[in-house]
Structures are given as structure tokens and as C-alpha cells.
Amino acid sequence: DGFVRAPPLGDCAALAEFADWDRDGMVALHEVATLLASLLPVDEYRTERFLRLHFEVDAGGRVSIWDLSRKIFPHCAAQISQLIISAPVPPVPELRRCSSRADVAAWFDRWHPSGSDDIDLRDLRLAIAKSIYRAYGDRVDTATKEVAVSVFLVQTGLLGEGAIHKEDFVDRVAPALQANMPRQGKSDTVDADSSKADDWMITIHAPLEGDEHQYLRVQASPEDTLEELFLCAAAKWGTPDELAGDVTPQQHQMSLNGEFVSAGMATQLRHVPSLQNGALVQIYRTGPTPPAT
């Protein structure tokens, strides 16, 4: 499809080479932050601030791929919990058919943290796609969601370059977007409840592992606990101490939809907010982990 998968954060040299797409030996810091935000549940703007506090950049806001591979990426991999705590993803208001004008405005503000009343169309397209995908969940297949997003963007004239003002979005685009959101009715609730009787397929992503081993698909019952999910990950990626039971799941962290999972280890999967059949979660150690070189 023309896309190249990014190497894991643990492979610092390969990831630095991937970031230097124009092969000039330098990478803009905001591009580094965007790359990290695609691998980890972190906010790209806060990540950029985090990087500026810890590393030197040149007058043009760039860093060398040597610094990326020898300093920046190894530090982020070893101090992954510090990075996630320092650059958390702000909660995203959920856009619904019944959302008020204030709710719509809050949704818009979340996607343009620069504070201006204009948002780049590229950022808005990403926000719209995420909202439509999230709204339909696993009830609609990926191909159908892709078509829905594409048709909506064409019909609302949001393709191409440029920006859109907040008032224009709230008055013109938002009503059409809300009309494309699924209805929240009793039938949805019944379907969701009945699906809990079946096993779920959950994908676990470990961003520090090797490229061929970053993903693990787990078939689990909604009545299983978070601890059991962690133990499945430990069986695949655990250190000898972890496999021997000397390291507890509490020494790891899990994220879902860009946010930490704060539920306790004994929590059933069905009671974890936003976790559902087909979900993708990320898991990583909270302590320093020597990155692969």
C-alpha cells in the first residue's frame, strides 16, 4: 500500500534512519515528536517540549540522526514511563449525534493545541477519521469505515491543503459529521451486552520489541482479568525473572486509546473502560529497559 512500518523504539539505529526520510542526516524535532506519538500513547506537542528540555537542538529546531540513535531514542526507550507521564495524551471529548455546540467546540479545541482558531486540514482529517472509527467500534468492518471517512471528506471539501476556522467547522462541518455518527439506542445496548458472552480477540502491542515480534493476538473471555492479560504478554516478552514469577504485573503499564489503563489487576476485561472485542492495547515495562542496538 506504499506505507513503510516504523521500526520498534528498541531498535534505535533503524528508527533514526527511518526518521531521516530525506537522508540529509538531520531531522526536525517536531517530526521526532510526531514519530514517538505514533509509537507511544503520548501527545506530540508535549513530547516536543519534553525533548527540548532534555536535548540540544540546532537553530533550525533539528537534531542529527547520530543524536537520535545514540542519545534521544535510547533515553526515551529506557525512560519510557517518564516520557509518558511527562507528555500524556489529553482526553478527547467524544463527538455524538446529540453533542451540544459547546461539546463540538471543545472537540475542535482538543485537536489544535496551538491555541489559534484555525486548524490545519491534515490534522482535522485525522481527527475526523479517529472519531468515526471510534464511534462505530467493532460493529462495522474497517473497509466500511474507510469508505465512510473518504466520502465524508469529499462531500465536505476537506481534502487538499489549507486550514479551517473554528466557527466554520462548528457551523458547517460539525452538523454533517454528527449526522454520520451512529444512533445511540436500546438496540446498541442489547448488542453490546450480548457480545460479552463471546470471547474477545485483543491485540497487544509491545513497542520496544523486535519488528517481527511487536504484536500478540490474545483470545480472552470478558470475564478474564487484566492480570491474566499481562501474564499472556509476559509469556511472550518476559525476562527470565518475569517468567519465574519474580516480577509482578504492577511493574508494567498498559495503555488503551492513548491513555493509561488505571483499573486494578483484578478488574475483569468487560469492566475496563473502552476495552472491547478487537481492541489494541500497548504494554511496556515501567522501569528502565536497555534498548536494542
Keywords:
12 helices; alpha+beta; two-stranded antiparallel sheet; 293 residues; globular; five-stranded mixed beta sheet
Strand order, sheet with most strands? 6-5-9-7-8
Strand content: 5-15%
Coarse morphology: globular
Mean pLDDT: 80
The biggest beta sheet is recorded as: 5 strands, mixed
Written account of the structure:
This protein is α+β, with helices and mostly antiparallel strands. Helices cover 45% and strands 13% of the residues. It contains twelve helices and nine strands. It has helices at residues 12-19, 29-39, 44-54, 65-78, 80-86, 101-110, 121-136, 142-155, 166-179, 186-195, 226-237, 240-243; strands at 26-28, 62-64, 118-120, 163-165, 200-205, 215-220, 252-256, 259-260, 280-285. A five-stranded mixed beta sheet has the order 6-5-9-7-8, covered by helices on one side. A two-stranded antiparallel ribbon has the order 1-2. Strands 3-4 form a two-stranded antiparallel sheet.
Layout of helices and strands:
Layout: H1 12-19, E1 26-28, H2 29-39, H3 44-54, E2 62-64, H4 65-78, H5 80-86, H6 101-110, E3 118-120, H7 121-136, H8 142-155, E4 163-165, H9 166-179, H10 186-195, E5 200-205, E6 215-220, H11 226-237, H12 240-243, E7 252-256, E8 259-260, E9 280-285
Parallel strand pairs: 5-9
Antiparallel strand pairs: 1-2, 3-4, 5-6, 7-8, 7-9
Helix pairs in contact: 1-4, 2-3, 4-5, 6-9, 7-8
Please sum up the structure shown:
With 293 residues, the chain is an alpha+beta fold.
